[in-house]
Amino acid sequence: MSYNAYITKEPIDGADDGPLAGRTVAVKDNISTDGVRTTAGSAMLEDYVPPYDATVVERLKAAGATIPGKTNMDEFGMGTTTETSNFGPTENPAAEGHVPGGSSGGSAAAVAAGEADLALGSDTGGSVRCPAAFCGVVGIKPTYGLVSRYGLIAYANSLEQIGPIAPTVEDAAELLEVIAGQDPNDATTRDATDEISGRTPDDDIRAYTFADAADGDVDGLEIGIPTELLAGADEDVVETFWDGIDELESKGASYHEVDLPSVEHAVEAYYVIAMSEASSNLARFDGVRYGRSGGYDGNWNETFARAREEGFGEEVKRRILLGTYALSAGYHDKYYKKAQDARAWVKQDFDSALEDADVLASPTMPVPPMERGESLDDPLKMYLADANTTPVNLANLPAISVPAGETDDGLPVGLQLVGPAFGERTIIRAGSALA
Amino acid sequence: MSESAVDPDEVEHIADLARVNLDPEERERFTEQFADILSYFETLDEVPEVEPDAELTNVMRPDEVTESLDREQALENAPDSEDGFFKGPNVS
User: Fold this and answer.
1) What CATH number does the domain containing B42 carry?
2) Segments of B1-92 assigned E as strands
3) ipTM
4) Which candidate, A432, A418, A381, A372, places its Cα nearest to that of A105?
5) What is the CATH number of domain A6-264+341-431?
6) Containing domain of residue B15, as a range?
7) How do beta strands A161-166 and A6-8 pair?
8) B25: nearest CA in chain A?
9) Is A127 one of the catalytic residues?
10) Cα A162 to Cα A90, A101, A427, distances in angstroms
11) Between chains, do A265 and B44 touch, taking CB under 8 Å as contact?
12) How many CB atoms lie within 10 A of CB B43?
């Protein structure tokens, strides 16, 4: 059966040898591939063929990976269910009839269905971790600045990172090794050799080692559990989450509860910042240099407004408008500036909680995978499902989602582990005790 | 808390600023949804003023000419072009 995991199936071959030789890596369709259509899930870019590769794609090719195709996603990454795609929804292979999560739903579904060995997603407010949790696979959102965003079609630059999705933590870590590294084409990346301090990789493709940290050794690991991130979660989800913590405890980890009062404001801060950045980023889609044209009748304002009416779906319009509103005269201080305050507060809260804990744990999503079509009519309800993932992007920190088990109804539940900046090896080690 | 309630004219005005045409049903739906979403955003009022940790640095590079897309590649995705230029609609 088809899960509609791919928007475009067109194999791209990598080098003959390398750390990923013989493996397939599906790539989310907002990551540019030279000569292969890249739509970002939008009618606006239905015929867009990038003339260059994203840095992560160059690295995949150099590492010997084969890219089987470009995966389905919420339009421009704006969604939690992969239902806002212009190319139809993706089915959840691990829970049929339910959404695969989003926005990287196609990537997670491709891995869960065995249609790719590994996949890349992008995570602006949970878009790698949510679909990983909903499809019962592993996803990593790297520390901001670890992975190049060059060639990623921007949604909210200050929040997003490209990250790996895989069946196991070790596989995800191997893919992260290939894509991580400083890039002159993305000035927000930097060399983190000192902080990461693993052993030196044995080829010149990789800058860091992560896979060897997936040894399952959690003896002595101290876990902080933010009570605020359990409070709003479904009972079923919380139960499964505690099963996962029990398992870590049985392997020598211990936990304590922590208070993170700032995260109560994370979702609204996240959406104000993400929508504001989106309203500016998506201004480039005017149908002149690329994308759907609005024709040549009337003046340019009328033409652009027509191109954008036809090319953008409803969720994208909603976010552009709300972002425009939040940044408009008279409202900037009320929304955008307060959201930046909240962001700084969240960051301080996480940093101080991580002084007494190696990792912070929570359910990745407060709810199990929704039934398809359930959340489309109520955007605010969809936004609130991002309560546990968005704080991590606001704080620029790394996080992993690993399968924790299933609800009584057989729906996958993910457990999220958050580490300190460039603490990828720590979250990989902790996560590998579960998957 | 209802000070952010928006009316259809305001939604239309924002859509104008954002250069996005809306159909009448979209405008109605957005008016209703924005009231909900904006009143939720207003809980940001409870956030204290926070001094961000000063850890930002400028990243500079030498201003050197490097290889880039040629003109033909740059125009490949343009719906229309003329004499090696992008072709756009009338400015006014």
Assistant:
1) 1.10.20.60
2) 81-82, 85-86
3) 0.94
4) A372
5) 3.90.1300.10
6) 2-46
7) unpaired
8) A314
9) yes
10) 20, 16, 17
11) yes
12) 16
* Chain B residues near residue A347 by CB distance under 8 angstroms: 52-53
Angle at A306 between CA A303 and CA A307, to 5 degrees: 85
- Catalytic residue, from A103, A104, A276, A279: name it: A103
Task: Select the residue from B41, B49, B70 to test the A interface by mutation, using most A Cβ atoms within 10 A.
Answer: B41
Asked, for residue B72, whether it belongs to a domain, the answer is no
Q: How confident is the prediction along chain A (435 residues), in pLDDT tens digits per residue? A: 699 999 999 999 999 999 999 999 999 999 999 999 999 999 999 999 999 999 999 999 999 999 999 999 999 999 999 999 999 999 999 999 999 999 999 999 999 999 999 999 999 999 999 999 999 999 999 999 999 999 999 999 999 999 999 999 999 999 999 999 999 999 999 999 999 998 999 888 999 999 999 999 999 999 999 999 999 999 999 999 999 999 999 999 999 999 999 999 999 999 999 999 999 999 999 999 999 998 888 899 999 999 999 999 999 999 999 999 999 988 989 999 999 999 999 999 999 999 999 999 999 999 999 999 887 788 999 999 999 999 999 999 999 999 999 999 999 999 999 999 999 999 999 999 999
- Residue spans per domain, chain A: 6-264+341-431
Q: Is B63 inside any structural domain?
A: no
Is B83 within the bounds of a domain?
A: no
Contacts of A397 in chain B (CB under 8 A): none
**DSSP string for A199-222:** PPPSSSS-S---GGG-S---TT-E
Report phi then psi at A299, rounded to 5: -85, 175
Lookup: tokens for B15: 């859509």
Does residue A401 carry a catalytic annotation?
Answer: no
Tell me the one-letter amino acid at A413: V
Neighbouring-strand partners of residue A8: A70
* Residue A372, both tokens: 């398809």
Q: How far apart are CA A15 and CA A205, in angstroms?
A: 12
Q: Would you call A342 and B59 a contact, using CB atoms and an 8 Å cutoff?
A: no
Cβ atoms of A300 and B91 within 8 Å: the answer is yes
The total of structural domains in chain B comes to: 1
Is residue B30 in a domain? yes
Q: How many C-beta atoms lie closer than 10 Å to residue A110's C-beta?
A: 33
